[in-house]
Design a protein that fits this description.
The chain has 753 residues and is an alpha+beta fold. The protein contains 20 helices and 27 strands. The chain folds into three domains: 184 residues, Aldehyde Oxidoreductase, domain 4 (2-Layer Sandwich), CATH 3.30.365.10; 310 residues, Aldehyde Oxidoreductase, domain 4 (2-Layer Sandwich), CATH 3.30.365; 155 residues, 2-Layer Sandwich (Aldehyde Oxidoreductase, domain 4), CATH 3.30.365.10.
Length: 753
């Protein structure tokens, strides 16, 4: 728990900030390697069919071309990668089959990037084209219910059909969200270097050990011979959370050439060689009593995926648990199309599914003539409505109340279209935000010198969230050191493993293992001190001793210099290697961590409690009465997420989440050409994202919350929750401003005209 004397919960600037702004921080493609050759990808211009023939003549004639890899010369060298759900996915280069637009069909390697690029454009490839299915409603798209593993069930409770039929007030509506792409500023890169049988892969990743294990498996290598390095990641958001097909191809290219090979894929290639947020559809049915109590809730979702993959996000696990309701039914369907396989993108299930639920709740508030915040209060609960377990803590209404006070929600006239400033129609909208609290096993190595300097090493990930700093804060807090006396080394699979930096588990998983390592050092020093007779601590309970920069400290101000206490247990620095397995972890999960698996204790699947962070997001929109231009001048978000390790970087996460939420609601969509199943706006000029002028005032309130049930340090995680309520809050505000209910994102002018 944070306390007044400790560093946990105090704002701290990033310890890696200077390295980042001076260029000293090495992103994967910045790593110097001797005499690299450069790769350029050739990608398919068709979405379905086969490669009929490849003519390399013109490409081979480009000066400096070293090699061209295609299915004709490398098929059989790899085991295809798996989809994010560990099932089948689209594969590249193993055969002549084209699964989707932008599939890698060849890799050119040359002395220079420019040479590789020119040769790539000179390869002549003929295709046999099949008519592709682009998305929902396309001829040839195949719908089926998602398949669930043996341990997983669709959330269901009571008797929805009877309750809905009898409900005095009902909402029955359909919603939709578009394809979206993460577009991290750092592109998708891979650099491979061989040293005899040993392969080093420099690639930006959220999963050091997952990448290591995955590459080893694909290439049939002993994992001990594969090292992955990714010290800084320039944005990921889920897009760098799993192995994709390019990595093995660059490794093979480097092996064939006996020389390091470097790939920096282009922005447009990133749309098809990595993953994305698939388009979704939703059918929501809500039944309520006239005083606003929910009696029936049904949520059915549909998600697009690739031909072979069953990947889905299945956000009904969240929406079924949001409000007290005795009768709940849910179902999730997938629709196979000729597309690349989708994957994780910030709050993958919650962002699209909560748009549907929170829009429907807003519709219900008007049907009941109730304030939308009051409707949420009436249906608030401290008990998971599906499992009957308590929430570990749930401060949802505190978030609404603090956000509403700051926002001035009381000034809202409930009648749609009633608030106006000249030509601008004003709307106030709100929605619930939430994200399950997950924690994984982790390992770390910590050393402390007799002069009070600590070094902690673990294969954790800095994806922009501030991981170096939260880990340093934890160690400094627990060992009583100054922040600058803690060195943090991350991003290398030669270090002890941590899970994928996804599912907002990073802060909790790494803080707990760091704290455990500190405790091990303290316990060793304390045990030796109380057993010795040359100390003021002889015979004391070792639990009463603390490590600080000034030395070992005991009750009544007793103290011994650190170097003296340490000399008793070590000839120099004291090093410990610890593993932390959080309570509730499945057997074998810790061993699996070393194999690149990411079994975590999930907030929605615990035996004792259901664990979520909650928040409230309130938005003011202004819609021009004549042009229907939508502006969002004001956002107030409040979040309660347990212990906040570093409020400064947490603020950035929350603010970034809310900004992305505005983007998702008003701007973003990857357009899919229905005839060719190709992405049309695959660049940052045409893929709309907000600029400063699109984001007015954006306030974040961090509601204090102590939760000793979620995990020992009370950390819920904050990486994803910031985006979750925004889609609905904006749509609800647009309805309040105009009386127009937009159920399909993004909300652009043409939908309001
Ligand atoms: Mo996050 S979308 O779980 O990387």
């Amino acid at each position: 728990m944070a306390d007044d004397t400790g560093l946990i919960g105090k704002p701290a600037v990033r310890i890696d900030g200077v390295a980042k702004v001076t260029g000293e921080a090495r992103y994967a493609s910045d790593e110097p390697v001797p005499n690299p050759a450069f790769a350029f990808l050739v990608t398919s211009p068709i979405a379905s069919g086969r490669v009929r023939s490849i003519d390399q003549t013109a490409a081979r004639a480009v000066p400096g071309v070293l090699d061209i890899l295609t299915h004709e010369n490398v098929a059989g060298e790899i085991t295809p990668p798996k989809a994010p759900d560990q099932g089948k996915t689209t594969t590249t280069l193993e055969s002549d089959k084209v699964w989707h637009d932008g599939q890698i069909v060849a890799v050119v390697v040359a002395e220079t990037f420019e040479g590789a690029r020119e040769a790539a454009h000179r390869i002549n490839i003929a295709y046999d084209v099949q008519p592709p299915a682009a998305s929902f409603d396309s001829p040839g798209a195949q719908e089926e219910p998602r398949k669930l593993g043996p341990e997983k069930k669709d959330p269901v409770k009571g008797d929805f059909a009877t309750a809905f039929a009898a409900a005095p007030v009902k909402i029955d509506a359909r919603y939709a969200t578009p394809t979206q792409h993460h577009n991290p500023i750092e592109l998708f890169t891979t650099t491979c270097v061989w040293d005899g049988p040993k392969l080093t892969v420099y690639e930006p990743t959220q999963t050091m050990y997952g990448l290591k294990a995955g590459v080893a498996k694909q290439l049939g290598l002993d994992p001990a011979n594969v090292r992955t390095v990714s010290r800084y990641v320039g944005g990921a958001f889920g897009s760098k959370g799993m192995l994709t097909s390019r990595t093995a191809w660059i490794a093979i290219a480097a092996r064939r050439l006996k020389r390091p090979v470097k790939l920096v894929a282009t922005r447009d290639q990133g749309f098809t060689i990595a993953t994305y947020r698939a388009e979704t559809r939703h059918h929501l049915q809500l039944g309520a009593t006239p005083d606003g109590r929910l009696t029936a809730l049904r949520h059915e979702g549909w998600e697009v995926t690739s031909r072979p993959s069953g990947y889905n996000v299945g956000g009904t696990d969240t929406t079924a648990r949001m409000y007290a309701c005795p009768n709940v039914a849910t179902k999730v369907n997938i629709v196979h199309a000729d597309r690349n396989t989708p994957g994780f993108m910030r709050a993958p299930p919650d962002t699209p599914y909560m748009f549907a639920l929170e829009s429907a709740m807003d519709e219900l508030s008007y049907a009941l003539n109730l304030d939308p915040i009051e409707l949420r209060r009436i249906n608030d609960t401290q008990t998971d409505p599906i499992d009957g377990k308590p929430f570990s803590s749930r401060s949802l209404m505190k978030c609404f109340d603090q956000a509403a006070a700051r926002f001035g929600w009381a000034k809202r006239n409930p009648k749609p279209g009633s608030m106006r400033d000249g030509d601008w129609l004003i709307g106030y909208g709100c929605a619930t935000a939430c994200y399950p609290s997950n924690i994984g096993p982790a390992a770390a190595r910590l050393s402390l010198t007799p002069r009070g300097k600590a070094v902690i090493q673990l294969a954790a990930h800095e994806i922009g969230t501030g991981a170096y700093t939260t880990i340093a804060i934890t160690v400094a807090d627990r060992l009583g050191l100054k922040l600058e006396d803690v060195k943090v080394v991350l991003g290398d699979s030669d270090l002890p493993p941590v899970p994928v930096a996804g599912g907002s588990n990073n802060a909790a998983s790494t803080a707990h293992v760091a704290a455990k390592a500190c405790e091990e050092i303290r316990a060793k020093l304390a045990a030796a001190a109380v057993a010795a007779n040359d100390t003021p601590f002889a015979g004391l309970d070792p639990a009463t001793l603390k490590v600080t920069a000034a030395g070992l400290v005991g009750p009544g101000g007793k103290r011994e210099p650190l170097d003296k206490a340490m000399a008793r247990v070590s000839g120099g620095p004291l090093e410990v290697h610890v593993e932390n397995a959080p309570e509730g972890l499945k057997p074998g999960a810790l061993a699996g961590l070393y194999q690149g698996q990411a079994d975590m204790v999930r907030g929605t699947a615990r035996k004792d409690v259901t664990a979520f962070a909650f928040g409230a997001q309130l938005v003011e929109v202004r819609v021009h009465a004549r042009t229907c231009e939508v502006r969002a001048p004001r956002v107030v978000s409040a979040f309660a997420a347990g212990t906040i390790v570093n409020p400064l970087t947490a603020y950035s996460q929350f603010m970034g989440g809310a900004t992305w939420g505005l983007s998702s609601a008003l701007h973003e969509a990857t357009e899919v050409d229905p005839r060719t199943a190709r992405y049309v706006n695959d660049n940052l000029a045409d893929y709309l994202v907000p600029v400063n002028a699109d984001v007015g005032s954006l306030e974040v309130i961090m509601v204090p919350e102590e939760d000793n049930r979620v995990n020992p340090m009370g950390i819920k995680g904050i990486g994803e929750i910031g985006i979750v309520g925004m889609n609905a809050a904006v749509a609800n505000a647009v309805y309040h401003a105009t009386g127009r209910r937009i159920r399909e994102l993004p909300i652009r002018i043409e939908k309001l005209l």
